[in-house]
Design a protein that fits this description.
- Helices cover 32% and strands 32% of the residues.
- It has nine helices and twelve strands.
- The chain is globular and about 55 Å long.
Amino acid sequence: MAKCAVAFSPGHISGFFRRIQGKDVEATGSSGAGIVISEGVRAQVRASFRPSVEIRRLSGDGTIVEVRNGSPPLEYAMARLGVTAHVTTECRLPIGAGFGCSAAALLSSITALSRLFHLGLSRTEVAVLAHEAEVVHRTGLGDVAAIQGGGLACRLGAGIAAPITRSVSIHEPIVALSFGPIPTPTVLDSPDRLLQIERACPTRCPVDLQDFFILSRHFTEESGLITPEVATVLTRCDEEGVPASMTMLGNGVVAAGRTAETVLSQFGEPLLLTIAPHGFSEAEVHDHP
């Protein structure tokens, strides 16, 4: 019977960031802060004659609601590893909407590929390749670094080896609402927008979750990234005293506290999340029928 390998990676919601262009891919990325969330991406891989990727978005009860085929970053990672496999990723989060799904898919898939093909990659080597694939394909800058661990993560430099401070003992409920994606390359390829983002980015780490929302909200307002939908929801959150900001980079809102769900549900179907205490998991091998 054929074997398959399965791994999971949590997602990540960035509150603020500053792009850093290094001398090479490994030194390129971003500084900033975000929260590693309990929901993420489960990847299953099995050997095949040619590489292929199937991306499934699931409803809350696990029903498949959307299927996409192909992923240049994942196909790039397989080519770099010299393996061919069929990769299936599953995620309940909105894809491409500021929840770190691209990074989570890479981390879980590369971890599973390493286990299935006996490559023996360390967690650091998995993260290095995932970060490389993100930067090369302009799908992200700092999510991979953050998802190496859990909690409220503040990245002090670019790349996965840069110092990161973490607060993992946070139990406040996290609620998010998405209105759709903001294509990451449209931001990362705009010198004017990147300059405005750099000027808006806070120069310190948040001291706690409340401070994270204060700093992130300032960044949201000053970076020029805010959308009309997000502005409307944030105004309502202010009226109700709910700490909230924009999901980066996505057309959505992330909020915290017991009344956050009530407020965000006025504008759509909110996602109920918690802060993940750990980063991406090790892979398991199973029989595949």
